[in-house]
Amino acid sequence: AQSVTQLGSHVSVSEGALVLLRCNYSSSVPPYLFWYVQYPNQGLQLLLKYTSAATLVKGINGFEAEFKKSETSFHLTKPSAHMSDAAEYFCAVRTNFNKFYFGSGTKLNVKP
Amino acid sequence: EAGVTQFPSHSVIEKGQTVTLRCDPISGHDNLYWYRRVMGKEIKFLLHFVKESKQDESGMPNNRFLAERTGGTYSTLKVQPAELEDSGVYFCASSQGQLAGLLSSYNEQFFGPGTRLTVL
Fold it and tell me: What sign has the CA pseudo-torsion B106, B23, A31, A108?
């Protein structure tokens, strides 16, 4: 069975500070892991995905995530937050037949 | 190229009424998915179409929900009669392929902006 847990429904950081959004997964098979972002009034946009080619995955807008099998984690980071990063972020596991299991989301607030 | 579109963007109805949500996938995408997010909770899978056929409808909550995809193009999701707990955001996604083992853009799901449904 697959499931995703995102710790912290709201995260607030100052502009220029490190962003860390946590995601832990449970999967009975090797996972396909994703991070999506949703800006207000828009659809889910793919940030990055883990394909098993490399444990450190780089995505758009300066975000990256590291797959740690021993910790069953796929945390999302960005060294320096920008005001435009304010959005809701979703971690997800995908099955072999393209069915997604999402976390409950983390809203990122960036303070000036 | 147009993305996935959904209509309406918002719908407010009273308990017991009927609502129909529409999703237009990206042209040429055989796979269409419906998801739902109840407030504050995770986004949950509802069902998956391949062309006009239901591949997986294991996430449909109950028989008040009916999804169709006549002709394999756009899809509708009807809720009849609507209940308070049906409130949430309904997302649609589409993809060309469906095999996650092949993680190319061919299999990537593209999401629409969602329909926010409020049942009073």
Answer: positive
pLDDT at A43: 85
Query: Phi/psi at A85 (nearest 5 deg)?
Result: -80, -10
pLDDT at position B57: 93
Q: How far apart are CA B64 and CA B45, in angstroms?
A: 16
Is B45–A32 a contact, with Cβ atoms under 8 angstroms apart? no
| pLDDT tens-digit map of A4-43 | 999 999 999 999 999 999 999 987 766 789 999 999 878 8
Three-state SS for A83? helix
Residue B32, strand partner residues: B49, B94
Alpha-carbon distance of A19 to A13, in angstroms, equals: 7
Closest by Cβ to A98, choosing from B4, B44, B107: B107
User: According to the model, what pLDDT value does residue B2 have?
Assistant: 79
- What is the count of residue pairs from A and B with beta carbons less than 8 Å apart? 69
Chain B residues within an 8 Å CB radius of A101: 42, 45
